[in-house]
Specification:
68% of the residues lie in helices and 0% in strands. It is mainly α. The radius of gyration is 19 Å and the shape is globular.
Length: 347
């Protein structure tokens, strides 16, 4: 599987990219103009909702995304409860990683899997823990962002032709709950990297554990089979690390306010264009997007020290996630056409 190979196109995605871009940029721009920029960054993180089920018809996304939003909001609520306690936050990262992975794999949620549930938990605990935003206000802003991005994603339903499509049942959209051998192995890998990542984070800086674990989970993805796990893990590791480098360059520009909204909107647009064809490339944009949001919410954008720490955390987590691929069994047959990058965003 070549690092430069793209999965086959599944049609135009610019409209999905535009919706996702609006979902993240509009809350920041609006609340910045109203004098509440920090809440704009929180609301913008609710746009992670629309990164799921991007290839599904709109009528099916209307059924799927509320469950994603509910999961993200639950992760945020748990993060709020854990804020201010190193032990609670560390245990919470492990718990949310395992629980979200079990649900994502058990119900075949698809890419990006448990990644954003982990990051939302960690980001919430970190921001509220700094004392800048109270838990009720934070959760209200985050929920508002989820709802706004959901409504933007469903805008095509205003067309009668789009509404006429017949969606599959929830049972078909979320088959399960069940874990096959591959799902159990992926869940085990997530559990291991969550525990090890938290322990490593505690040795370095407890506030950074969620990003180490998130980077590892991003590298794991939903790949199965030992050889594919290593190859895809390497691709994700490179994408995540390159994305961290891109963040460093962008952070030096000290983006803020409307300019930051436009930058994040552009990154989100790029993510939606490439995520179903090359997930490693998508991570080049996903990584700085999340880091910029985190930096904006905590007031650390432009800090060289923080940027350097994030790159180190990303590298540690990415290596950890890739190394966990050794747990997969050796392939019993050569990789064939079925092992080429899939069209659901898993590359």
């Amino acid at each position: 599987m070549s690092l430069f190979a793209f999965a086959p196109s599944r049609g135009k995605r610019w409209h999905l990219a535009l919706q996702a871009s609006i979902g993240i940029a509009a809350p920041i721009a609006l609340l910045t103009l109203l004098g509440h920029a920090p809440l704009g960054y929180v609301a913008a993180s609710g746009a992670f909702t629309v990164l799921y089920a991007g290839s599904a018809p709109v009528v099916e996304r209307a059924r799927m995304l509320p469950f994603v939003a509910a999961g993200l909001l639950a992760s945020a609520a748990l993060g709020a409860l854990a804020a201010g306690s190193t032990i609670a936050a560390s245990a919470g990262v492990v718990g949310v990683a395992i629980a979200s992975a079990a649900l994502a794999f058990g119900f075949r949620l698809g890419p990006p899997g448990p990644l954003f549930f982990v990051l939302v938990f960690g980001l919430t605990a970190h921001v509220i823990g700094t004392g800048g935003i109270g838990a009720p206000v934070y959760l209200t802003a985050f929920a508002g962002g989820c709802v706004f991005s959901f409504l933007v994603a469903l805008a095509p339903l205003l067309r009668s032709q789009t509404r006429a499509a017949r969606p599959r049942s929830l049972r078909e959209l979320f088959p399960g709950p069940s874990l096959d051998a591959d799902g159990r192995m992926l869940l085990l890998r997530v559990a291991i990297v969550a525990v090890v990542g938290v322990l490593l984070g505690l040795l370095v800086d407890p506030d950074r554990t969620y990003w180490i674990v998130g980077s590892a989970v991003a590298v794991i993805g939903v790949a199965a089979a030992r050889r594919a796990a290593f190859q895809r893990g390497l691709h994700r590791m490179l994408g995540t690390v390159v994305g961290a480098g891109l963040y460093l360059l962008l952070a030096l520009l000290h983006p803020a306010g409307i300019w930051l909204a436009l930058l994040l909107g552009t990154l989100q647009f790029a993510i939606e264009l490439v995520v179903v064809r090359h997930y490693a490339l998508a991570l080049v944009f996903i990584t700085p997007l999340v880091l910029l949001l985190t930096g904006a919410a905590t007031g650390t954008i432009g800090s060289i020290d923080v940027a350097g720490e994030r790159i180190v955390d990303t590298l540690v987590g990415a290596v950890l996630g890739a190394a966990s691929g050794v747990l997969h069994r050796s392939p019993e047959r050569p990789l064939g056409k079925d092992d080429t990058p899939s069209t659901d965003g898993e590359n």
